[in-house]
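The instructor's notes for this session suggest beginning with a concrete chain rather than abstract definitions. Hand out the sequence below and ask the class to guess, before any prediction is shown, which regions might be ordered.
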Amino acid sequence: MNNIPKVKLGIIAVSRDCFPITLSEKRRSELVKVYEAAGGEVLEIKKTVESETDAIQALAEASKVGINALIIYLGNFGPEGPETMLAQKFDGPCMYLAAAEEASDTLMVSGRGDAYCGMLNASYNIGIRNLKNVYIPEYPVGDFSELASKMAEFVPVTRVIIGLSKLKVISFGPRPADFVACNAPIKPLYDLGVELQENSELDLFTSFKEHDNDPRIKGVVADMEKELGSGNNHPTVLPKLAQYELTLLDWVKDNKGASEFVTLTAKCWPAFETNFGFVPCYVNSRLASQGIPVACETDIYGSLSEYIITCATEIPATLLDINNTVPYDMYDSEIKGKFDYKCHDVFMGFHCGNTPSCHLINPQLKYQLIMNRLMEDGNEPDITRGTMEGDIKPGHITFFRLQSTADATLTSYVAQGEVLPVATKSFGSIGIFAIKEMARFYRHVLIAKRYPHHGGVAFAHVGKVLFAAMKMLEIDDVAFNQPENMMYKDENPYS
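After discussion, reveal the predicted structure:
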């Protein structure tokens, strides 16, 4: 994927001048060896920081080799001023880690580092410097193996943070009528460092017409045919879809501006079909497969959420409606007794046809059934062709959304679960999702906190990464599906 950051991780060791500097340096080198042996990549900065001057020199060394994410490692107690100056002057996310003592026979003066104590003073100095680019894991002290695992967990968090700082969201058109729920106050985007370019549907249509007879269309059609295989049910619409795909990709290239990464969203009904002559779902799915999410229905925060997921997982994301209940007879015959979920833990996630084919069982190019009823009276489909449909493959998922409230406050939710291996017997990009305590999450998070019906879907369990990234972004309210023995703030204790 070319639309997400490449993390170049570096590590700088720090040392309090009353402790042996060699202890911190030896521990840093050993940590690097363990991390690299586990498959990680990290650049070891040789300058160890004891003073402010050392901090400037170490940062210069890091800058020279292009480091964009930094581990600040307390191999011993550490110098609280210089070690926090490192983060203050580094243009990127930083994580603080501290060395655990290695063995009982090393606890005399030259072998004991006291980093457990030093981390406390580091945290105080992080606070008084008001540093916003610092991540401290749930338990930041450990041996080499434990800290190597925390370094690996930090990498996807940094991809999210770096990606957002260099992102532009490009939108086309207003939201459809009666879609106030997907509101998009724009100031919080700029608070995150995200750029926004809002355009008219006419701008998009004009650009589309300028791509008439584009010589590249044949090549894109051939690629679509290869992807679709036997699922190519509407081959005559492919040239229009290819033309639209080229339109969007050229718009991204020509309008990226000072940003490095782009995500899109567009109003996809009802005027789209009558003017463009198709539905854009399949093209949206193909761009998502390239790491360029295209959210439906001008859902700016949906597009942003999909991009965050893509950075967190390096896997194409999708955007689905939290759509309909699973019929009781289907639950009784297909789920009850076979999977450890209550009836109200399961629901169907659906959208017209925007999910990448790699996530679908037997993907098919079809037409939008609901719009066909509305626009073509249920007759032979023409302008409603272009959906990517199929049941979603079973496996781990995480539902996620970052959203601005109507009064411009950023909130978020994260809920891990799975797609069950149960046929939906329905249409669209659709699956049967199971999330523990979903009924309570639905009532006390989605409804109580006024979230819209769109949720970003990660095809992995990445709740830990997404939660950590939201906290680094200073999102105070990050909700999750709380277990049965953990009540929500507004939950009726007698229910």
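Then share the key points. The chain has two domains: 9-158, 167-480. Residues 167-480 form one domain.
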